[in-house]
Amino acid sequence: MSVTTNRSFSFTDKVRAHLEILDPVTWISVFPCLAGGVMASGSMRPTLHDYLLLLSIFLMFGPLGTGFSQSINDLFDLELDRVNEPTRPIPSGRLTKKEALLNSVVVCLMALAIGVFLWLYIGGIRGLIILVSIASGLFVAYIYSAPPLKLKKNIITSAPAVGFSYSFITWFSANALFSEIRPEVYWLSVLNFFMAVALIILNDFKSAEGDREGGLKSLTVMIGAKNTFLVSFIIIDLVFISFATLEFIWGFYHLVFLMLGGLVLNIVLQIKLYKDPKSGVSFMQNAVDDGFGNAIGQSDVAEHNAYLRFQIANNILFLSNNLFAAGAIGMKYMNA
Questions:
Q1: Which residue from 189, 199, 240, 332 lies 20 to 30 Å from 249 (Cα-Cα)?
Q2: Rounded to whole angstroms, how far apart are CA atoms 204 and 125?
Q3: Signal peptide location in the record (predicted)?
Q4: What are the start-end ranges of the H helices in 90-166?
């Protein structure tokens, strides 16, 4: 039921609503990949010039690019939000549909403007990579939520779309910001893509009933929760194994042991979650409640909380290895 009222809202209320529809807690999801891409270049200098370039790409993919994906999603999910999330900016009446559309258009154009600026400023293939990345990311964000394609309705299209937008293009763009694309970055972008796909697949198990009623073809609806766990865990573990293999090939032997140790810990967590989808990995609940809750969200749904607990643990293990590897790659090229 809609909670829209006829009351007028102050300028401050409007500003807050415009910020809320961009969903700031989601911006952080692209930052580790951007940081990894920059570190792997080994070419960023501690100067105001380079810090401003770094800030520009963080703004382009974070508040603007990711913000656009969230605002456009709210526009096309309005009828669902009237029932499920009536306090969101549009169904609550704090923003009209026209104001929300304007919000989406403005942040989209701002993201594209930064992309065009970086393309012209950096030039060559590197600049083109950045422009094509943000343009394709914005396009995928639109068709993810908008009919007729609405990629989010089918896990076969939704998971790759998220992996592409949040993990794949961000590695390439951030690396291109300061150097030619390092050969190792091709591999890291692919590994991060598959990790994002695995987590999106796993995320679906918490909302299987709602997906089934809404006609969404999530993997859990198609093959059941337990099989969805197995598919997701297999992808995650293969990513860890592939990462460790690449680190060995690259000569980062100390990181191989760190990655394999993370794999063992992750398998232990996976077994706990598989056995108990509601209470598994319960020792991480304090991290959800007090540590990372504001960044990743909280939930009253037991299955969702279990997923959030696993997500925190998995991301700590995987992203820390990402940054260590990116740093080692960057040091290699700094010393070349």
A1: 199
A2: 38
A3: none
A4: 97-122, 124-145, 155-163
